[in-house]
Structure formats: C-alpha cells, structure tokens
Design brief:
The protein starts with a helix and ends with a helix. The chain is α/β, with parallel strands linked by helices. Helix 7 (about 115-125) links the parallel strand 4 and strand 5. It is globular. It has helices spanning about 5, 15-20, 35-40, 45-60, 70-80, 90-105, 115-125, 175-185, and strands at about 10-15, 30-35, 60-65, 105-110, 125-130, 140-145, 150-155, 170-175. A five-stranded parallel beta sheet has the order 3-2-1-4-5. It has a three-stranded antiparallel beta sheet with strand order 7-6-8.
Length: about 190
C-alpha cells in the first residue's frame, strides 16, 4: 500500500452512544475503533454489549487505549473550550484515539451524540457524525460558573464543585453571557 493510499484509510471511532443507537460496526466503511471504557458504558448484557463483543471478536472493531501525548492534546483542547467539566475520562480517551489515528494516517470520524465531544472535535479539526441527534450547529466556547455564589472560573478549571461554596459548577456559552450584560447596561 502506497503512502497516498495509506493516508486515505477510513476509521470510525465509536462512542457508547453508537452502540446504544444500534449502529452496526459491520455496516461501516473502514476500520472501527473504540476505547476500553466504552465496554463499561455499554454494560455487560444486552444487544449493545453483544454488538460490541461480536465486532471485536471478528476483528471489525479494534479496542485500544490512546497514548499519553494524545490524551494531553485532548485535555488541553477540552480545557480551552470549557468542556472539561462535561467530559468523562472515556470521552477524553475517544478524542485522544481520534487524534492518534489521524497522526497515523487515518481519516478518523467520531460517531457520537455527545455535544461536548463534538465541540472539542470541531476545535481540533476532527470529523464527527451524530447518530440520533442533529449534532452541534456551531462551536461554542464556555465559561464555568457557580450557580449558587455566582463565582466565575477559567474554562480549564479541573474542579467539578465550587471551591468557595461546594455547589456543582455549571457552564454557559461565553458569547451569550456577554450579550445579556451588554443589553442590561444600555437600559
């Protein structure tokens, strides 16, 4: 296989939502990939688990953990976008695996309905395809805040609870907040 052909290899990185939505890995063009944590998210029994196991045993699905460098890149991009408080470790591994596959010459597509994964993928120049939703319409950068004490935090905050009052942190689009404040100050 020549270098040009190798660069065009298709890869689909499957989130748990792909198996839950009923996606059949055998119907995909190219190689299917996922991370070990998706097994736990799919659960031990049922059709989703069976679909995953059969695809893996047949070689159509490769279950693989990404390397530390790709994980670092995924964490940095999710922190920059403010999605870090919404993404699980499995979500970060899926993004990292797509990064790694792209660096290996694949054309990876993330199959996921998770908006936070889609938002970070968009930031990183990774393709994604939603399954049971319409997917994101635009890329959003989020600000993180406490809904109780109204403290604001940088988008890369690692805590999930407010260090001031202990309330679970939330996020809101950074652009929308600025728009509301601008209208209020004119009144």
């Amino acid at each position: 296989m020549g270098a040009a052909e190798e660069r065009k290899r298709k890869a689909v990185v499957l989130d748990a939502s792909a198996f839950i939505a009923g996606l059949d890995p055998f119907s995909l063009e190219g190689q299917a990939f996922t991370v070990p944590g998706v097994r736990a998210e799919v659960g031990p029994g049922g059709l989703c688990s069976l679909r995953l196991r059969v695809a893996e045993e047949s070689g159509k699905l490769v279950v693989r953990s990404p390397g530390e460098e790709a994980l670092r890149k995924a964490r940095e991009a999710s922190a920059y976008m403010g999605d870090v408080i919404k993404l699980s470790e499995v979500d970060l591994e899926l993004l990292a695996l797509a990064i790694e596959l792209k660096e290996e010459g694949y054309e990876p597509v993330l199959a996921t309905d998770d908006y936070a994964i889609q938002n970070v993928a968009e930031r990183m120049g990774l393709s994604f395809t939603p399954l049971a939703t319409f997917g994101i319409r635009e890329q959003l950068r989020w600000e993180v805040y406490c809904p109780a004490c109204h403290a604001r935090f940088p988008p890369d905050v690692e805590e999930r609870a407010c260090p001031i009052c202990g309330t679970l942190l939330k996020r809101r689009p950074a652009g929308k907040r600025r728009g509301r404040r601008a209208r209020a100050s004119k009144a």
